[in-house]
Each structure stands twice: as structure tokens, then as C-alpha cells.
Amino acid sequence: MQLVVGRIGRPHGLRGDVSVEVRTDEPDRRFAPGTSLATDPASTGPLVVESRRWHSGILLVRFEGVTGRDQAEDLRGTMLVIDSDDIPPPDDPDEFYDHQLVGLTVVKPDGEVVGEVSDVLHHGQDLLVVRRGRTGTAGAAEVYVPFVKALVPEVDLVKGVLVVDGPAGLLDPDEIA
After folding, report:
1. Residue among 57, 159, 50 nearest 103 (CA)
2. With contact defined as beta carbons under 8 Å apart, do 112 and 162 qualify?
3. In sequence order, what are the residues at sequence separation of 6 or more whose Cβ sits closer than 8 angstroms to the Cβ of residue 121?
4. Contact 91, 107 (CB under 8 A)
5. Which residues pair with 35 in a beta bridge?
6. What are phi and psi of 106, to 5 degrees?
7. For the chain, how far is it from start to end, CA to CA, in angstroms?
8. How high is the mean pLDDT in each 10-residue block of the chain (177 residues)?
């Protein structure tokens, strides 16, 4: 699975620098000089970071072979991606990457299947978006479950299952508005 770590924005200056909308917690690592990044569309890359610097809170990157503003403009909108297999697992066994959680089957403690994790939101508190019913069902209801140990006591990546043990009504279809 490919994960987006950045999106190329507009050119900066005349020498081929581009602004990058950072979508990773490790920009210094992902955009280190010499790093090769796959792209979406794939035909644009791979791109190798020649240099990078921060300017007024914006990451500016120069890629090898991109020497002018016109070449930089041609890269605008390109997604910079890495393979999820290249990411080491977290040190904490209770910590997970979003891509590990999305797609997990959600079950109640008794084993009843209630849905699938369709997204993870980070709004002050991490929220799992659980799509009720079968995957791909049109109009399937979604519920938001705070991703805390008290409500999500078990995450089994090997089995592809996440247990939600919430209060009555949290996952009941009759309670969904």
C-alpha cells in the first residue's frame, strides 16, 4: 500500500524549488537529501531530493534534474508516496498507524461483526470512523468511536479485527440517526 507523505505545490523562485504540502510526521526523514520518492502519477517519478529547507513554515524542496521554474511547475499537484512496508512498526504495542487500522473488521466483545474501520480522524482526540454493515453497501451508516483503550480494548492486526466495547447504543443500528 502506498502512503502519501507530501503533495507538490507551486514553484518557489527560478531554480526549480517547489513548495511541498507535508503529510507526514517525519518530514526531515522523508525529505532528506538523497531520498528517492515514488510519485502519483508514477510517470512523474521517482524524484530524488537534492536539497530541502523551511521558509516561513513551508517546506521547500529541490529535486535532482529539476533546474528551472517551468520544470517545477510541471510537478505541481504530484503526490509523493512511500510504500507502507518501508515504515518500521511503532515501538509501543498500543500505537498504530492509520493505514493499519483502516479496513479492520469491527466486532463487539461477543464476536458479533458490526462493521469496518473506514477512516481515522485526528481532531483533538483520535476517532475511528466505523462503517456499519457490509463493505461497499450504499448508504451504510457511519459511527465515530473514540480510539481509547476503554472503548477499544483489543486490536489484532494479524486477524484483522478490532474489538469495540462501548456503552449501549454506540454501535446499535437503531440508535444511529
Report:
1. 159
2. no
3. 127, 129, 144
4. no
5. none
6. -100, 125
7. 34
8. 86 94 86 93 92 93 94 94 76 77 89 88 82 62 87 90 83 52
